[in-house]
Amino acid sequence: MTIRGIINNLAICILLTLSSCSKKISTAINSTTTINSEASMKKPYVILISLDGFRWDYVDRFSPPNLSKFIKNGTKAESLIPSFPSKTFPNHYTIATGMYPDKHGIIGNTFYSYDKNSIYRIRDRKMVEDGSFYKGSPIWIQANKANMVTASYFFVGSEANIQGVKPTYYYTYNRDVKNEARVEQALKWLRMPEKKRPHMITMYFSDMDNVGHRFGPNNDEKLSEKLYELDSVLGNLFDGVAKTELPVHIIIVSDHGMLEVPFEKYIPIEDLMNDELYRTINNGVIVNIHPKDKSKTNMVYNDLKNKEEHFKVYKTKDAPYFEYVPEDKNWGGIQIIPDEGYFFSARDRIVSAKENSRKISGQHGFDPQLKEMHGIFYANGPTIKKGYTIPSIKNIHIYPLLCQILGLEIPDNIDGELKEIESVLVTDE
Ligand code: AMP
Ligand code: ZN
Ligand code: ZN
Predict the structure, then answer these.
(1) Do residues 83 and 108 lie in contact, with contact meaning Cβ atoms separated by under 8 Å?
(2) Nearest ligand atom owner, CA of 53
(3) Residue 24 CA neighbour count, 13 Å, CB half
């Protein structure tokens, strides 16, 4: 190589290094806010509580005392409509960002990522904590940008560095942490000195999802037992918050409801797999098919279509239940959707359930229009109407409401709209 060639190569190397440096700087634009700005200190407080799998009809069916009182003193929606697929991770992150899964990137509890050539799974800590999966500006980041201190006792996305930051105070997810400890910590946060006190707090409780999966949503005895336990812990939170005398808004939501699915309606996913031709990503109610050779997509589609039995096969652009035409390439080219009430699962899980004489389970993920998939929206606080009910509402609209209460800018690229939900707020006349 000539001297000139060497110099040229060196120049290219330096340029490449500089551009990768500037890329790093531009993705990590934020630093964690540890002290509230003067303006933030004057803002109210919000606790966003997610009760995983809490179906829209549980309060009416079981009358838990603290939640019933909470609703009476505030606003409720007839139900909260999840986004498709009505699974935990996509919907929590929709609530956190105001975006549909197709836009925010967490399109399933499990999905294949072309950019990383790897599979995101909610049990894989490395994946869950990898901020590059999470698009949009979740509410704690939006608050952070306004120099507002934030906190999380669990929420999907809160353990990942998104745009370079996490909530000011946060915990790595551990399902064994007692609900009482979560509540105690939230109250401690509210008792911190003003400058360090978080204004946006997220919390998460998985109890109703667990009991719903295990016994189905029609087992009144098991559901009410768990619900009353949870209600009592929430009662402690409500009482503790009232004692702070701070302007705290509490917004209680769930990610989805639950449908009874007998094990005889489980379909073994192995029956549809063909590792040579395509990758199969199963979320129970939607199976993403990624043909390894794109030119064989039609062949794979026709082959799967011929096997239709209690499920249907679609090209991704034609798949039902989406609120939009899916664009994220991580969906893959073909979707398999079970008929209502059917569910794909690994064969050994189905066999072991049958061996243990289990007949019934609860599942979710289905069509968001199905009322059984609907969750809850209950809100209470100084700017929330009392004794007020709004019709069923989509979960994309919660985020702009949170922004409005906290005086944060509402990003213009979200799917949710303030006008769809602002009637819950008191108007000053
Ligand atoms: P699913 O019912 O399959 O949609 O998922 C619900 C499960 O997600 C719950 O049992 C939780 O244990 C789990 N989960 C919730 N939040 C997190 C988190 N931040 N990290 C890992 N797992 C979580
Ligand atoms: Zn869930
Ligand atoms: Zn679940």
Answers:
(1) no
(2) 2
(3) 5
Give me 338's structure tokens.
């079970």
**CB of 102 sitting under 6 A from ligand 1:** no
Strands 377-380 and 248-253: antiparallel
Tens of pLDDT along 289-316?
A: 999 999 999 999 999 999 999 999 999 9
Which residue's structure tokens are 């799917």?
A: 415
Handedness of CA 317, 322, 327, 331 (dihedral sign): negative
Q: How far apart are the C-alpha atoms of 247 and 43, rounded to whole Å?
A: 9
Global model pTM greater than 0.90: yes
Which residue, among 253, 291, 298, has the nearest Cα to 274 in the 3D structure? Answer: 291
| C-beta 154 within 6 A of ligand 1 | yes
Question: Measured from the CB, is residue 121 less than 6 Å from ligand 1?
Answer: no
Rg of the chain over Cα atoms, rounded to whole angstroms, equals 23
Using the mean position of ligand 1's atoms as its centre, give its distance from the Cα of residue 288 in Å: 20
- State how far the Cα of 390 lies from the Cα of 79, in Å rounded to an integer: 9
pLDDT digits 0-9 by tens, 148-197: 999 999 999 999 999 999 999 999 999 999 999 999 999 999 999 999 99
Whether residue 106 contacts residue 283, with contact meaning beta carbons closer than 8 Å, is answered with no
User: Under DSSP, is residue 135 helix (H, G, I), strand (E, B) or coil?
Assistant: coil
φ/ψ of 337, rounded to 5, equals -120, 120
DSSP string, 36-60: --HHHHTS-EEEEEEETT--TTHHH
Query: Do the bridges between strand 118-121 and strand 110-113 make them parallel or antiparallel, or are there none, so unpaired?
Result: antiparallel
Give the number of the atom of ligand 1 that is nearest the alpha carbon of residue 89: 4
**Using an 8 Å Cβ cutoff, are 383 and 45 in contact?**
no
CB 59 within 8 A of CB 68: yes
* Contacting residues for 234 by C-beta, under 8 A, at least 6 apart: 49, 66, 67, 70, 183, 252
